[in-house]
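Box S2. Input/output pair 1.
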Amino acid sequence: MFRGKVKWSPVETDYLKKHRDDMSINQLTIALAKSRNAITRKLNEIDGKITTVKRNKKSYIGKRKDLDGQFMRSRWEANVARWLNYKDRRWEYEPEVFFFDGIKHGTVSYLPDFKVGTLWLEVKGQLDPKGKTAVRRFKKFYPKEFKKLRAVVGRRGTQADQFFINIGVPIMAYYNELDKKYKDTIPNWE
């Protein structure tokens, strides 16, 4: 029996959103090659019906009441949103997917975590090979948008920090410094 986490690409998620009302669950399972349970869970996630789920000691996925019920994929992203609110910065969470034309396998798109004004903001603790590929392809396929990309990484000197610096992405903040400075100041900090 398969018990792993079902992975959803942005393309699959968009397809599900588009066809949820005109196709049955059975038709969606065939079209997306996913189980009924996986599709039902994803629809619940999209609808905001999933409550906060503790994935491990450091990461929570779910809606945040203090952020107007906004669904967040991690506590770091939720805290960065709170920090942006504290700084009176307007932001949008995962507002746009950038697809890589001609790429058919592997990393076919990039979804920045936030849009803050005209800037894109990526929040990264650990940067896996897939994440690096997404950022490199974003630079190649969308050079004008890439120039607007900023990052929040865990701490100075980490692999994520070095990767973003080497590829030309300015670091907006270091999460460990934000955590020390704001955990007792900003309400609901996780």
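Box S3. Input/output pair 2.
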Amino acid sequence: METDLARQLQQLEQEEEKQYNLLEQALDDDTILQ
């Protein structure tokens, strides 16, 4: 049970990191600002 929760949390963190990286890339490309 606990390991399932830990795994889910890890997946969520990875997804969050992916989204954050995409956002940072977009900002670097100035796509949001223009």
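Caption for Box S3: The radius of gyration is 14 Å. Helices lie at 2-28.
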